[in-house]
Design a protein that fits this description.
By secondary structure, the protein is mainly alpha-helical. The protein is about 75% helix and about 0% strand. The protein has one domain. The protein has helices at about 10-40, 55-90. The termini are close together. Keywords: Membrane, Transmembrane, Transmembrane helix.
Length: about 90
């Protein structure tokens, strides 16, 4: 049995991790913006149907599922890398 240090995360894994953080973080900020906008009355008289509000309303609807898929992809890639390392250490 060899004592090798585990390999660092690949570039693709790091990119996926930053994408997850960015997409989910932006979606949460958009969700908070809608809550705050509703509290201050921005939604009165169809206010959410104008300007940048439709984009802000749609962002969590698409961003959170995309973030979930990216998390699954990251977990699969990490599991495959660890399995490959375990096979190499076993030989």
């Amino acid at each position: 049995m060899t004592n090798q240090t585990p390999q660092a995360a690949s570039r693709l894994e790091r990119i996926l991790a930053y994408m997850v953080a960015g997409v989910v973080g932006l979606s949460i900020l958009a969700f908070l913006a809608v809550i705050i906008g509703t509290a201050v009355g921005a939604g009165a008289n169809n206010g959410f149907g104008q300007g940048v509000w439709p984009l802000i309303l749609a962002l969590p609807l698409f961003g959170l599922p995309i973030g979930f898929v990216l998390i699954i992809a990251l977990m699969v890639m990490t599991g495959l890398r660890r399995a490959r390392e375990a096979r190499q250490n076993k030989e």
